[in-house]
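Private note to self, pasted from the team thread so I don't lose it. Backbone tokens:
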């Protein structure tokens, strides 16, 4: 039996990749690995609060392994922290690391290079799947997500805070990847196959910062109602 950690961004691609892994009888996912900005206590790039990240892990029933990096982390420090995380995975008996990458060859090559000197093998459950079809499949499977980060150079700012649904896909401007694989947007999954319960969230303040637009998500005050 293969033992895998899922490289977990808190967004839709990693969540759906995890779902695909769950349907493979020879793989058992035993943990989530997430890069967290230790300065702001949020998921790197997605800007999701750490409490929401922890809630995802709870709903999935999986241990969460945080790679903490400072704001403005250098490439060298990032690589060092990731090597430490991979070493911990090896010690825990992990045989595979899964990623939600879709078609960016340079990112895939980086992942493979990072793991090349270790016993851990990379897995790419969603690799090269047509992203329009994949986006629709995610929604049809019951995955629910909110857009937490938008690059306004690629997608209008008003998309921040929207639900990732068919209406969202229909409204995307021409040239924008339906899964945001070119960095157009990032998301937070509040329900997905494998979750015990949906996470009740609400959209708070939407702000521009360092060239991006972020929608702050919080646990809804109606939780449990």
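Design output:
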């Amino acid at each position: 039996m293969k033992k895998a950690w899922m490289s977990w961004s808190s967004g839709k691609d990693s969540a759906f990749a995890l779902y695909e892994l769950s349907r493979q009888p020879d793989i058992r996912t035993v943990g989530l690995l997430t890069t967290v900005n230790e300065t702001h206590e949020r998921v790197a790039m997605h800007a999701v609060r750490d409490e929401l990240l922890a809630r995802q892990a709870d709903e999935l029933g999986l241990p969460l392994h945080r790679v903490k990096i400072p704001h403005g982390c250098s490439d060298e420090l990032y690589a060092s922290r990731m090597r430490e995380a991979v070493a911990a995975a090896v010690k825990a008996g992990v045989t595979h690391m899964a990623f939600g990458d879709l078609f960016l060859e340079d990112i895939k090559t980086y992942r493979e290079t990072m793991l090349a000197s270790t016993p851990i093998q990379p897995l790419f459950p969603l690799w090269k799947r047509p992203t329009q079809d994949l986006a629709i499949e995610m929604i049809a499977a019951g995955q629910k997500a909110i857009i937490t980060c938008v690059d306004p150079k690629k997608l209008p700012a008003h998309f921040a805070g929207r639900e990732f649904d068919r209406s969202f896909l229909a409204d995307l401007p021409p040239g924008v990847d339906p899964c945001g694989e070119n960095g157009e947007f990032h998301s937070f999954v509040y329900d997905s196959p494998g979750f015990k319960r949906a996470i009740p969230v609400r959209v708070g303040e939407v702000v521009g910062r360092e060239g991006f637009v972020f929608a702050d998500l919080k646990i809804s005050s109606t939780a449990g109602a």
